[in-house]
């Protein structure tokens, strides 16, 4: 919405930078994010091939390099085990090994995507975005809202974002 509004309302006399961020007026701290993740996946857990739910414990945030190294190592080991499986191993067991390798790959991708957010210690200034919003008519603000202070983190994370992460991980 902010991109549409910005394109329809070019800056007077040149370039304008807009930070569409929530850190200045509606921050989400990493511990709060961890709480939302834990709450969601305790209510809606992933399930093992047997149908048993996978229980999620407390989340620990570690250095990004360590996390990527750990998940990448898990992915390599799972792939090796899947390729090395020979002899009297069942087709179901081979499928399970391949699924574990795929899950480890998904974990590596998720760590690469989300890890930078666990290391940032900054506040983004959204003053230009607020000024742009203030210059709009009430009707335009209602039609294309982009005020990050209005984000309800519980509703967004547990009702929108995490269910989509869950859905994508099941692919």
Question: Your description of this structure?
Answer:
The mean pLDDT is 85. The chain is an all-alpha fold and 171 residues long. The chain has helices at 2-8, 30-43, 64-84, 91-119, 127-134, 138-143, 153-169. The protein starts with a helix and ends with a helix. The longest helix has 29 residues, at 91-119.
How are the SSEs ordered, and which strands pair?
Layout: H1 2-8, H2 30-43, H3 64-84, H4 91-119, H5 127-134, H6 138-143, H7 153-169
Point out poorly predicted stretches. Answer: none
What structural category arises from helix and sheet content?
A: mainly alpha
Question: Biggest sheet: strands, sense, closure?
Answer: none
Radius of gyration: 22 Å
* Through-space gap between termini: 29 Å
**Percent of residues in beta strands:** under 5%
pLDDT average, as an integer?
85
Q: Strand-and-helix sequence, N→C?
A: HHHHHHH
How many beta strands in the DSSP annotation?
0
> Which of globular, elongated, flat, extended, rod-shaped describes the shape?
elongated
> How helical, in percent, are the residues?
55-70%
Counting DSSP H or I runs of 4 or more residues, the number of helices is: 7
């Amino acid at each position: 919405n902010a991109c549409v509004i910005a394109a329809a309302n070019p800056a007077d006399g040149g370039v304008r930078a807009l930070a569409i961020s929530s850190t200045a007026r509606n921050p989400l701290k990493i511990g709060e994010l961890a709480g939302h993740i834990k709450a969601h996946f305790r209510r809606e857990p992933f399930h093992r091939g047997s149908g048993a739910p996978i229980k999620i414990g407390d989340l620990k945030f570690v250095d990004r390099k360590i996390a990527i190294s750990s998940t990448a190592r898990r992915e390599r080991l799972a792939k090796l085990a899947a390729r090395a499986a020979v002899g009297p191993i069942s087709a179901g067991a081979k499928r399970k090994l391949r699924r574990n390798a795929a899950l480890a790959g998904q974990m590596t991708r998720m760590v690469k995507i989300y890890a930078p957010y666990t290391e940032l210690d900054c506040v983004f200034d959204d003053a230009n975005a607020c000024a742009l919003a203030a210059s709009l008519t009430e009707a335009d603000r209602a039609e294309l809202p982009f005020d990050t202070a209005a984000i309800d983190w519980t509703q967004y994370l547990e009702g929108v974002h995490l269910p989509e992460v869950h859905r994508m991980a099941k692919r």
